[in-house]
Design a protein that fits this description.
Length: about 60
């Protein structure tokens, strides 16, 4: 389940990219990554270092 949860932001990014463009896809990626971090923190009690780096990459893709 945890591995599937890690791919959801990426899948949402590509779907949004195909439907709406790169700017909207980047926004969806950031929001989905934030939601993913909250779910992981709530369910497992911790967020791994690699997952934190995805959050930084998501923010940098918007700016």
């Amino acid at each position: 389940m945890k591995q599937l949860l890690e791919f959801i932001p990426l899948i949402l990014f590509f779907i949004t990219y195909k439907l709406s463009g790169v700017r909207d896809a980047a926004i969806v990626l950031v929001i989905a990554t934030l939601v993913q971090m909250v779910i992981l923190k709530w369910k497992y009690g911790t967020v791994e270092k690699q997952q934190k780096s995805w959050l930084v990459r998501s923010f940098s893709s918007v700016f």
